Amino acid sequence: MVGIRPPVSRVRLILLALLASSPAAAQADAPAPEAPAEDDENDSSDMPALPPPIETKPVTPAARIPIAGYELAGQRIDPDDQLMALLTSIAPLGEPFVETGPSDRIGKPLGTIPRIAETMDGIGYRANVSKRAAAGGVTLVVELTPYDRVRYVFVEGNWPMPARRLARKR
Length: 170
Fold this sequence. Notes:
This protein is an alpha+beta fold. The protein has a domain at 67-146: membrane protein fhac (Ubiquitin-like (UB roll), Roll), CATH 3.10.20. It has helices at residues 10-20, 23-29, 43-46, 80-90, 112-122, 163-169, and strands at 67-74, 125-134, 137-146. It has a three-stranded mixed sheet, with helices on one face. The chain is built from six helices and three strands.
């Protein structure tokens, strides 16, 4: 009974194969790279000389331009003070103006102008927002056009489809 071993399970064989073929095992077995022999004769002819490293200047962030004010233009249904309160809640006065970038096209916009346009769209206005230089920052000019919306629908005489069923299908 000295020569009898218990059978090796398949799981143990797979684990052993994974350990033997892992990248760490391959790196441990690989010989260290040899240093190239230095020959004074072949240095200049075999390899071209590398250019000296280029010194790069540190990148300075763009100046933060604050929002100095808002101007409303165009046709409006809501009172101006409520629209101004909404605009200042989106981007308060004195906060930095964030330029529009490629990330504003996908998902939630980050730029100031797309955020204003999205919010105004949510309350029923098409907004053309432009910026104008002002003393101490930027003034945002918001030109509003209200969407045409149907507020009330009265249904009479539709015997096969009552009004409540029509409202649910909407």
